[in-house]
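Below is how a single chain appears once it has passed through the pipeline. First comes the sequence as given, then the structure the pipeline wrote out for it. We keep one example in the README because the format questions we get most often are answered faster by looking than by reading.
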Amino acid sequence: MPDVHTLPAVNAVLNGTSAILIAIGIVLIRRGRRTAHKRFMLAAVVTSSLFLACYVWYHAQVGNVRFTVYGWPRPLYFFILITHTILAVTVVPLVVVTVVRALRGRLARHRASARWTYPVWLYVSVTGVVIYFMLYRLFV
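Resulting structure:
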């Protein structure tokens, strides 16, 4: 396991990678490339799972990290953080249900849940990177 203080950057890379994989997966399925779509979406599940493991381990070691900036960035940061957190909790069961439906060949049900899952998952992945930059890079 990497040094605990490098984990926020590792988490941002994992979140960013997930976002890219999700976006490519969506483009692939819209072009009818099912096998490639499946590979990219499963890779997104793996990177998101690695993120979650690293995130939990980091916060078990370090605890909460405070956003100490005041002024206009503060309400923006907390808006992004709150929406990210609520949707991050929501997206885990959504992804599980959507993936299980696809793997079981229940494609109509998979498509129905994927319409909700992918934008939420993409938002959570992208805002995870935004939170990293706001907390560890932009306002330090």
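The longest helix spans residues 107-138.

See the next section for the split statistics.
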